[in-house]
Amino acid sequence: MNTMATSGFGNGALDSLAIATDHGRTRCVNAENPTGGKGTAATAASALGPSRKGSPCIQTIKAGDSVTLMDVDGPGVIRHIWMTVTDRTSPTGPNVLRNLILEFYWDGEETPSVQCPIGDFFCCGHAQACRINSIPIMVVPNRGFNCYFAMPFEHARIVLRNDHNEDVPAFFYQIDYTEYDALPADAMRFHAQWRRERVTEIARDYTILDNVHGHGAYIGTYLALTALESRWWGEGEVKMYIDGDEQYPTWCSTGAEDYFGGAWSFADFDEHGRMRENTFTGPYLGFPFYSQRLAAHRESDYWDVATPSCAACTAGTFRIRFISILTCASPGSRSAPRKPAISSGRMTSRRWHTGTSLNRTRRSIQSVTVTSVSLADLRLFR
């Protein structure tokens, strides 16, 4: 008889902490222990003495340079990633969270399985941090970025590239992982695509994810966009074309805010009878950021530098920015992002109102294309 099963012990959320089933070895990589070696952390000294904050962070990342955050052999599983960094370097450089690019390479691959701006990886688009309180991603004051997705590997290399217009000081990070003697044969690898479109085309579906083949699970979507007109942006249905679907999808939502777990434009009425969008986050979904403030001095290859300026943005418009896709796939799977065409539709100023959404779902797939319908009054940027 399985006494644990009959007693209920083992079914609680924290019961696993009291069950000796994990035979891995805890390791971490940070500026104090960049190799993750056993007994090699905190060897640097400071004015406080030996092993006292001798190397708490990467002091400076030069503009145009890349630094390796992690380069370790496995087998292993990344359990937790924590990072923090300034969000601006000067009045003309507020886009640090858009211009620091994370790249994850698994098992000796030359093309990264993850390539995404650091802010958007942690569900903070528009180069602006906001609070996220979900199970896989948590962002807490002040820019404490946390990721809890499990990421198995035989070899892991994580690189941070500085595409910012200035040097970035004081980058703090820690990557906690478990080292094992072997991984299960069916352990999958973590993938994330980041893509955007400056202006969507009327009545043309916007492709979120495409050209993904192999066995895997679709985890979810983070979407940030800008509405260029004072009309509701969220009537596009998310459609998933799975395992050979052609003209019509297998899976379809009933609206953009519906896909992200909300309803009726995330809105409520204040004491004056005016409709307001409400932000929220939950374990697996949310609408964490909305703003009608204008964001000035945006200078970035990832921030619509070439977009012409408009005279003004009306109070009814707001901005949502771009998409980060999180997927897991089997070791032999590959995701080849299709570069979206930049439409010749109406442009707008680099100053917009902002709103973001996140959703975490799991879909078993072999191949997938995900699209969102662009309606007459919908303009998306990515």
Features:
about 375 residues; mainly beta; Jelly Rolls; 2 domains; 10-stranded antiparallel beta sheet; 9-stranded antiparallel beta sheet; 4 helices; about 5% helix; disordered C terminus
Short description:
With 382 residues, this protein is mainly beta. 4% of the residues lie in helices and 41% in strands. It has helices at residues 3-7, 96-99, 118-121, 256-259; strands spanning 25-30, 45-46, 49-50, 58-61, 66-84, 100-106, 114-117, 132-133, 137-140, 144-147, 151-162, 168-179, 189-195, 206-225, 238-242, 251-252, 267-269, 275-277, 280-281, 285-291, 323-329, 334-335, 354-372.
Structure write-up:
Strands 1, 4, 5, 6, 7, 8, 9, 10, 11 and 12 form a ten-stranded antiparallel sheet that branches. Strands 13, 14, 15, 16, 19, 20, 21, 22 and 23 form a nine-stranded antiparallel sheet that branches. The longest helix is centred in the first third of the chain and has 5 residues, at 3-7. With 382 residues, this protein is mainly β. It has two domains: 22-186, Sandwich (Jelly Rolls); 190-372, Jelly Rolls. Helices cover 4% and strands 41% of the residues.
CATH architecture designation of the largest domain: Sandwich
Low-confidence stretches: 302-356, 359-367, 372-382
The succession of helices and strands, N to C, reads HEEEEEHEEHEEEEEEEEEHEEEEEEE
Number of strands: 23
CATH topology of the largest domain: Jelly Rolls
Structural class by sheet pairing and helices: mainly beta
Helix content: under 10%
The end-to-end distance, rounded to whole angstroms, is 56 Å
Q: Compute the gyration radius: what is it?
A: 22 Å
Number of helices: 4
- Total individual domains: 2
Residue-averaged pLDDT:
75
